[in-house]
Structures are given as structure tokens and as C-alpha cells.
Amino acid sequence: MIIVVKPRPGIILHNPGNFMRLIDAEGSPVVLSGYWQRRINDGDAIVVPETSLPASEPILSETERPGAPDLSAPQAAPVAQAVASGGTPAAVAPIAAVDAPNGGA
Questions:
Q1: Is the pTM above the cut of 0.70?
Q2: How confident is the model at residue 33, as a pLDDT?
Q3: How many angstroms separate the CA atoms of 6 and 22, rounded?
Q4: Half-sphere exposure of 67 (CA within 13 A, CB side)
Q5: Please, are residues 15 and 22 in contact by the beta-carbon 8 Å criterion?
Q6: Domain ranges, ordered by start, for the chain
Q7: Which residues contact 23 (CB under 8 A, 6 or more apart)?
């Protein structure tokens, strides 16, 4: 559920999805989560009616934001891909030898 929150006067609210981004004083759309519910309960965040949000501001989910990874199709890990194709993953052997006591001897 998307809600619009703004910080209580005198409070600076960070977006937990991108901690460098601050919540606007006029209000920013966020996904209602435990984090935001606690901020609302504590009085640090105020819920703003969505009608006061400018129509030009897009509401982006965590997966729609710029630079977010594409999670629409599951990706197999490179090691799993190598094993599934019948090969031995080259990256695993040197790591095992390095981590072994006495250099694997």
C-alpha cells in the first residue's frame, strides 16, 4: 500500500530504501511497511492525504526506481549454472585451495 508521509516539523526523515534520500517536507510517497508504521506511531512521520501530492510526481516501487535490478526472471548463480551444464566452476577450486590450511597440501 502506497501512502504519502512528511516529516514532523524539526525532524529529518531518511528513506530506508536509499538512506541518502530525504523525505520531502511537503510529503513523499512510500510503501507502508513496519519502518513507516513505527515512524507514524512515534509521531516523526505524518500521513498526508494523497490529493495534496502533485500529479507530476511518479510513485515508484523499490524495483521500479532507477538502477534497481531486474527481478522479473529468476537468475541462477554462475556456480549453479556451471554445475548444471556438467562443468566444474573454475572460481570455486582456487578459493577452496586458498582457504585450506597449509595451502591445501
A1: no
A2: 92
A3: 10
A4: 2
A5: yes
A6: 2-52
A7: 5, 6, 7, 13, 14, 15, 30, 45
